[in-house]
Design brief:
0% of the residues lie in helices and 43% in strands. By secondary structure, it is an all-beta fold. The strands form eight sheets. Strands 9, 10, 11, 12 and 13 form a five-stranded antiparallel beta sheet that branches. Strands 28, 29, 30, 31 and 32 form a five-stranded antiparallel beta sheet that branches. Strands 4-3-2-33 form a four-stranded antiparallel beta sheet, with no helix packed on it. The protein is globular, with a radius of gyration of 20 Å. The termini are far apart. 53% of the residues are buried.
Length: 409
Amino acid sequence: MSRTFKAVHPIPHLVTACLLTGFLVCGGIRAAAETVPSGSATVSHVYVSYTPPGASSNKIAEFNAAANGALTTIAGSPYAGNVESMAVNGSYLFGSNLTGTWVASFKIKSSGALQWVNSANVQSPDATGCVYPSAITLDHSGSTLYRVQYSGGLCDHTHYQSFSVNWATGQLHFLGKSADIFLFNSPLSFAGTDKFAYGSECLNYQGGPLDTFTGYMRGSGGLLNVAGSSAPNPATKDPNDFYCRAWTAADPTNHLAVTFTDTNFNDPYNSPATQLGVYTVQPGGNLTTTSTWANMPSTAVGYVTGLATSRNGQLLAVSGTGGLQVFHFNGANPITPYTGLLTSASIDQIYWDNNNHLFALSKSGGSLYVFTVTATGYAAAPGSPHAIAGPAGLIVDPLTDSDGDWDHD
């Protein structure tokens, strides 16, 4: 039996931690990473925010990943950055501060070590009275940062703030905000052209399931706004049910992987395993699909917590409360099964680098897993999993960007 949707209350401080990820964190780093032979080339930097035992502020554990996926701790780690959600653009790491008021900019040195350069007050230009630490993300070019802002009398609406990035200083400049939507649809996935983004959550709102799938358009200056994109929902096997969409992940060529959970209004907590379907992004942002209940593969990870496409778009990782699994992503064609469970640990966040490494963070397990996964084989990296107590957030800087956008390093 798999859970269908997340429980939601109208007031955010009552919303469960699985919905507004990271409101409740604890713990600290327990163990260093594996030792890698001298001279091993670094292919990516890996950052994990965490809360030391008994502390009220977070730190950032910093690692270098070698070609075989083994991790080494960067000199000076951990860094005293009181952040949770993070994003990188090759030159800077941005962190959403736990106070909910600031987004900090950290310069990424050539060694991978971080150096704070400035912070932007994200409440000052857009005060809503709902001050919570929020998820942040970047477009593919790394030139615009987007942050979820809660709004409404019960803080039960959201919009996206848009900030341009000054490549010389890392400073963020407020561009504006999108229109409000009811409830939540984070995280966003940007299509390959960087012009459109999509997000969804499958929610239990006041006793009934609700799908918040929303499309956004990114303007030429970076400002994001609701686009009103159409996205037809495939028919379920039972015409009395409907598919509730909760996670999205785009490939580099304008295809969007989406989770579909067959939901019955009268028995929403006894849904079958979540399935994986595909949308194709049309030039105007509307979505089309050839996915049906018969050609969408089922997941084995329990309650899904995330999707991530590999940098080349050939693989799709799925995380959940019951583990981690990888599928073949075939553009507009149906997604096909590949691996079984790579681990049965509960996984909260997943990221790929450009060297076939899949990083997976388990908050409840206090572990960072690393796997090498290609289209023809997969294995755990040396030293994986790495013990980190109280992890809160994960981000990976791949050093080389597959689509060539990050040219400001």
